[in-house]
Structure formats: structure tokens, C-alpha cells
């Protein structure tokens, strides 16, 4: 590839762009162009359409990296013509026609399931929606396990909920069927059962999968390792 791709980092549920901050800094220090858009976390279809619109406004090739729910988002948004690769970070690699709930439902629940909070929110002209978030007191252990407590408490207070609608929507396309992919499994993940990650990656036929003895927020605890997977992917693309 004659032109180095722009790296677009996509955050997941219960997080925002700041979750990628250590990796963003590492990639910027290496001279890469990086974008970290805010994902609305309102619906899989809406979030994917938004991220695709961001991608399609970037001149030149793009490599998408998605963490957690962000993996589902890049699976759909990655169908954009200028996306040249996908990197899944502790993420959901959905198949076409599959929802988050269906993929996750095939495996035992993680520790997160018993610490979710469901809160209604108004929708103009329609029935109220439901936001899903993590109990603030449990967040440091089940979502930010391994992150220094002072940082985990800030992440808990600023978490971005995910609308429950997103769990049931099916992916209309699976970009990994036509785009090369790479993956990271967090072996100490308390948020997603690591076997969900392994299954999705194997089914997608990713070019390589790295297992790290890390928690769900591997971008916070092992930023150099995550950055290397992304830059190695770029190097492999040539």
C-alpha cells in the first residue's frame, strides 16, 4: 500500500473515546494519523452508519480497530470501500444476520451480567427506550479490572451507556468476509467471556489472533501491545 492508512479507533459500550487514550498517544508518537470518534451507543445500525459516514469522509485508506461492542460496529461499518482492514480488540465479530445477544448467548455469562443497570429514557413521539450501564461500584472490578483504581473510578463515573436496542439488532453485513482482520483476546476478561472473542475470530478467519493476559480494557493496561497489533496489521497490508 503506497499510502499509510488512517487509523480509526472505535470505542465500545460503557466507555467513550478516552478509553483509547493510551493507544492513541502511542500511535500518534509513531507518526500515524489517528481518529477516535464518539460512538452514539444508541443502536447497532445507527452507530455503524455513523462510523461509516466518518470513515467515508476520510481521504485515503482506513484501518478500523473496534473494542468490545465497537467490534460489532466495525463489522458493519467496515463494509465502506476505503476500509482496508479490521482489528478486533476484546470484541464481537458478528456474522451477517447475527445479533450481539445471539452471539453472546451461546456462551456462559461473564461477571458483568449480574452488575448491569437498566434505566428508561424518553423518545420523542415513541415508547421510552432503555439504557444499559454498569453499576458504578462494581465497574472497577468487572469492567475496568486491572486498571488503577483512581482511573477506574473516573471511567465508571463517565461511562457511556448502551441502548438495549443494540443487543437485539442483527448485523446486515459482516465486513470480515471481504476485508482482512486481526484480533486480540483478553484472557482475563470479566466483561466478555473470552471464548466469545475466540469463537468470533476463528469463524471470521482472522489473519492472526494475539492472546494477552489482560482485562477487558486491554487498551488501558497494555497499550503498547495493542498498538503493535494495529501497526503490524498495517505493515502486513504493505
From TrEMBL:
Stretches assigned to the AB hydrolase-1 domain: 7-228
One MF term in the entry's GO annotations: hydrolase activity
UniProt keyword terms in alphabetical order: Hydrolase
InterPro entries named among the record's database cross-references: AB_hydrolase_1, AB_hydrolase_fold, Sec-Metab_Biosynth_Hydrolase
Superkingdom per UniProt: Bacteria
Gene3D superfamilies (alphabetical): alpha/beta hydrolase
Keyword hit for Glycoprotein: no
PANTHER family per record: AB HYDROLASE-1 DOMAIN-CONTAINING PROTEIN-RELATED, ESTERASE_LIPASE_THIOESTERASE DOMAIN-CONTAINING PROTEIN
Protein name (record): Alpha/beta hydrolase
Organism: Microbacterium flavum
Amino acid at each position: 500500500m503506497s499510502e499509510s492508512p488512517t487509523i480509526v479507533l472505535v470505542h465500545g459500550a460503557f466507555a467513550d473515546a478516552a478509553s483509547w487514550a493510551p493507544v492513541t498517544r502511542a500511535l500518534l508518537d509513531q507518526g500515524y494519523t489517528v481518529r477516535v470518534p464518539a460512538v452514539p451507543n444508541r443502536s447497532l445500525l445507527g452507530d455503524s452508519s455513523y462510523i461509516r459516514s466518518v470513515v467515508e469522509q476520510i481521504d485515503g485508506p482506513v484501518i478500523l480497530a473496534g473494542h468490545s461492542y465497537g467490534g460489532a460496529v466495525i463489522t458493519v461499518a467496515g463494509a465502506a470501500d476505503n476500509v482496508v482492514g479490521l482489528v478486533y480488540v476484546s470484541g464481537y465479530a458478528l456474522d451477517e444476520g447475527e445479533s450481539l445477544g445471539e452471539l453472546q448467548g451461546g456462551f456462559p455469562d461473564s461477571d458483568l451480567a449480574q452488575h448491569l443497570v437498566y434505566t428508561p429514557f424518553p423518545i420523542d413521539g415513541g415508547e421510552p427506550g432503555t439504557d444499559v450501564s454498569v453499576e458504578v461500584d462494581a465497574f472497577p472490578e468487572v469492567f475496568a479490572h486491572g486498571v488503577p483504581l483512581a482511573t477506574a473510578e473516573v471511567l465508571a463515573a463517565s461511562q457511556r451507556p448502551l441502548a438495549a436496542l443494540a443487543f437485539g439488532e442483527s448485523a446486515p453485513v459482516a465486513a470480515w468476509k471481504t476485508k482482512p482482520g486481526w484480533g486480540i483476546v483478553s484472557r482475563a476478561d470479566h466483561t466478555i467471556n473470552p471464548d466469545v472473542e475466540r469463537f468470533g475470530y476463528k469463524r471470521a478467519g482472522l489473519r492472526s489472533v494475539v492472546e494477552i493476559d489482560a482485562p477487558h480494557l486491554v487498551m488501558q493496561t497494555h497499550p503498547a501491545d495493542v498498538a503493535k497489533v494495529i501497526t503490524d496489521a498495517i505493515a502486513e497490508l504493505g
